[in-house]
Structure prediction request, 121 residues.
Amino acid sequence: MEIDVTPLTGYILEILFAVITVVVGYGVTLLKDKLNVDKTSQFNRILDDSINAGLNYAFHRLEQQNKKLTFSTEKEAIAVATNYISSRTPGIMKHFNLTDERIAEMVESRLAGNVQKDEES
Prediction:
């Protein structure tokens, strides 16, 4: 006694293709999430390096003017570093939805504890 499953073959193939589509779609989603995490991690490193470079540039500018980082020059240093960073990392700023004000806050937080008192004349 034989059972003919030929009429069911079409249904079985449709179900098999649906399962394969779901599995491949899920795999692509996982890969996309993994790549986005890697991209965000890379952008974090670039932003961190840019903040350091912006501060170094601001310190250099102060040094050229024979100034030190003091309470009276802190705002100038923050502005110079913020302009430096925002002009060199527009894609990263867009990725993290950062504004110049937020960059300035990040720069200012790096300066915390490094600002000297103004010298009395």
Residues 3 and 56 are 81 Å apart (CA to CA). Residues 6-64 form the longest helix (59 residues). The two ends are 110 Å apart (CA to CA).
